[in-house]
Design goal:
By secondary structure, this protein is mainly alpha-helical. The protein contains 8 helices and 3 strands. Strands 1-3-2 form a 3-stranded mixed beta sheet, covered by helices on one side. Helix 2 crosses helix 6.
Length: 180
């Protein structure tokens, strides 16, 4: 795999998205993923896996575009509150309700968990739809439509928490329909 070519593409996309280019390294993204954006404090890192090289070129481009779009924290948070903010709001609301109704501790814990389980997927969906719109705006709608079609035909085989995250995301068909 030509990592210099990947780095150059990430730099080009970063200019188009008007963000600082994330660092790019060869490594092991989660099982079933071809590349993964990781956050390190204020910096971002794209980990490219061995299977990335096997992807069709248009999919490599789409994966890198999504990763670069996701590295733009400011814009991502404009699309919806961050997960930490959503969990904080859920916890605060649950605590207020618990005190108002003088509920026992197990009920409070259950309510907090329910609020987090309900709020986090909603926020995540807003952010995914926002990233799709942003990638379409910068790279063209055809990029998104081809990538979503590819993932419908070749779904990622994620494991563990990443598999759960994939299940609570909107389906590729719903994402394509939202794009028009």
């Amino acid at each position: 795999m030509d990592m210099d070519k990947v780095r150059l593409r990430v730099e080009e996309l970063s200019q188009r998205f008007d963000v600082n280019p994330p660092e790019v390294v060869y490594g092991e993204p989660p099982q079933g993923a071809d590349c993964k954006l990781k956050r390190r404090g204020k910096n971002s890192l794209i980990v490219i896996g061995a299977t990335f090289d096997v992807l069709p070129e248009h999919m490599q481009d789409a994966d890198l575009a999504w990763a670069v779009a996701a590295s733009d924290r400011t814009r991502l948070h404009k699309e919806g509150a961050s997960t930490q903010t959503a969990a904080g709001i859920g916890a605060a609301a649950g605590t207020v309700v618990a005190f108002l109704f003088d509920l026992p501790v197990p009920v409070v814990v259950a309510m907090l968990a329910l609020l987090c389980v309900a709020v986090v997927p909603i926020i995540g969906r807003q952010q995914i739809y926002g990233m799709d719109r942003r990638v379409a705006e910068v790279c063209g709608e055809e990029t998104i439509h081809r990538a979503l079609k590819y993932y419908q035909e070749h779904p990622p085989q994620m494991r563990g928490l990443y598999q759960l995250a994939m299940k609570i995301q909107p389906s590729m068909a719903k994402r394509a329909a939202r794009m028009g």
